[in-house]
Amino acid sequence: MLAGLVAVGVPILIHLLNKFRVRSTDWGAMKLLLDSVKQDERKVKLDDLILLLLRCAVVVAAVIAFAHPVLKGSANGGEASGPVAAVVLLDNSASMGQTGGALSRFEQAKQEIREWLDALHPRSEVAMILASDSPVPLVAEPIDDAVLLRKALDEAPLSDKGSGLMDSLGMAVDALAATKDRPKEIRIYTDGQRPLLPDPEALRRLAREHPEILIRPILVGAAPAANLGIVSLEASGGIPSPGRLLRIHAKVLNAGPGEAVNVPLEFSLDDGTPAGSLVIPRIAAGSTAEGVIAFSFPAEGPHALTALLPADALLADNQRSLAVEVARRKDVVVVNAGSVTGGFVAKAIAPVAVEEAAKFFLAPLPAEMDELPGLLAQQELPFAVVLCEPQEIPAATADLLDRYLAKGGNLIVFPGAGWQGGDGLLPAALSAPIGEGTPGVTWQGRGLTHPVTRLWNDAANGNLGSVVLMKHFPLDLRAGEALVTLSDGKPGVAIGHRGAGSVVLFAAPLQAEWTNLAIHPAFVPFFQRLLGELDRGAQGGLNLRPGEVFRKILKPEESGKNFTLHLPGQGGERSGGQLAASTEGTVLRCEDTWPLGIYRASVEGEPVAVFTVGLDPEESRLEQIPAADLAEWTTVPREAIAEPVQSRTVVLKDFLPLLLWILVGLALVECGMAYRVTMAR
Description:
By secondary structure, the protein is an alpha/beta fold.
C-alpha cells in the first residue's frame, strides 16, 4: 500500500504544468499595473507553495491510512495499551456473598469489572464466564459489544455453588483459541478462597502450556470477616419413628480470627415450628465444635428439621436443614430365624416383650432361604434382610439380592461356620477361619470413629473392647470399609454400598464358640445403631449439595401422574412433569437443585418426598490464598518452559483512527485554503 506514495507527485505535476501554461503578452495598460503585481508576487508564490504542500500531505495521509499501520510486539503474555482479547472470570460461588461493609464481595467484583471495561480500548473483545465448581458462560466468545457485556454483567447472579476455578479456566482458554492478532488475557475476579484452587500445580501447568495468555487474578475485598457456619446436621441413634428420640448433631465451624463463645443454635420443624435450642460454649478459631439436641418427630412421613445461627458476614451458611423420612414400621427379614443366631438377631431388632412386639417400629419377619425370593418379589420391599449363618449365597439368590440392593434394600450377613464362598455381593472376601485354640482377638475399645460405634468412646456407655472373637474369618476389604476394627488392626465388621443399598458383613457367626457378641450388653444398642446407619444411608439421598440430582422410587401406581415441586423460601411452585415407569419402578427425579433450602414434592396434591440442599461445607472456610502465591502460580518464567513457544507478533497499538482524523483535518484545511486563495485572486 505504501507504493501509493508516488501519487504525491500528482499535485506537484499539476502545479508545474499550470506554470508552463502561462504566456506573457505585453500591452500598454499592463505597464501601469507592473509595480502592484510585483508587490503581490511573493505572497502568491507562498500561498501556492502552502496549498501544494497541503495537497501532498492529504495524499500522503490517505495512502498511509489505507496501509493501516500498527505497532506490533511479542504475544508473550505482556500487557498492551491497544485492543486486547480478554475473558473475565467472575467468581459467583456462595463465599462471594460475604460482606465486610455495604457491598458483598460479588458486588465489589462487578464494580471493578465495570471500571475496567470503561478504561478498555474500544476495539477490545471480551468474553465473560461465571466461575464456580459448575461454570456458566455469560458471553461465550470475545465480542466488542460494550452494551451486551454490561447487560450480562448487571444480570449475573450470585449462586449457592461451591468454589472451583480450573473448569472455568479451561473454558476461557478455549474461548481465546481463535484470537490471532492481539494480546490475550484472562482476568479472575475472586475472593481468593482456598478451596478455589485445591491443586495449584494444575494452574501452573495451564500457565506454562499457554504462555501467550496473561492470567491475572484480582482479589476482591479485604481480609475475611468473622464468620460462623453450620457445616453439617446429622441424626444418630436409630431409625426415626414417631415419638422416638433421636440425637441431632449440629457441627459449627468458626472461620473467624478469634474464639467464639456461647454460640446459640435455634431449631425449627417443617413450616417453622420451634423445635428447641442449644448453646455451644466455645469454638476455637479455625475449628469446629458439635452441639447435640434430643428430638423426636411427631408423626410419620417426610419431615425437615432446620438449624439456624445468628446473622454474620456470610448468610448462606447460617442455616442448614436435615430431611428425614419417619416410618411407623419397618420390616426386617431374618432368614433361618429358627437357629440360635436368628433368635438373637430377632431379639436385637425388637428388644421388647412379646406382647409389645406388634407395636414396635421394627418388625423381625422369620423366613427360610427358599422363602426369600417370594418376599423380595413383593411390592413393599423389606427394609433389610439378615442372613443368619448361611454356608453360601446361591447364585440365583444372589441375583435377587443384587436387584433388591439396587432399589435401596440392605443386607446383613453373619457367615456360617462352614462358609463355602459365593461372596460376590459382600464388601470383603472371607478367608479360612482362624483363632481356634488361641486367646482370640477383641473389638477395638477406644478411639472409635464410625457413627455406629463412636457412642462407646464414652466409658459410661460400656466398652466394645470386651467383645471377644475366639474364632473368626479374616476379612479382606475390597469394596467397603471397616465398621469395626479388631485389636490386631484387621476388620471385624465390614460395610459397603451396592446399588442404592448397603451390605454389612460380620467376621463371625453369633455362636458361643466363636464370639460372646450375642450375650454382650452392647449387642442390642449396637444392632439398633447399625440399622439406624443403614436407614441414614438410604436417607442420604434426601440431603444434597447444590447441583446433585434427587431421585426417589415411588409405588408403581404413581406412574403417569403429574408431580409438583415446592421450592425453598419464596421460590413458589413449579411443575415437575409426569412420572414415568422404569426398570427400577416409578422414579421421581429432580435435577435443578441450585437454591439452598427445603424442597417438597407432591403427586396430585399428596406429599411424597421432602429433600434438602445444603451449602458445601468448604464454602464456610473463608481463608484467602495469599496474593503473592496467586501471582507466582500464574507467572511463567521463560526458562521454566520445557519447550519454548514460538513468540508471535501481535498488534500492540493501532494508528488507523488517529490517521483518519489527521486526513480529515488536512482535507478541511486544504479546502479552506484553496477557497481563500481563489477568492483573493
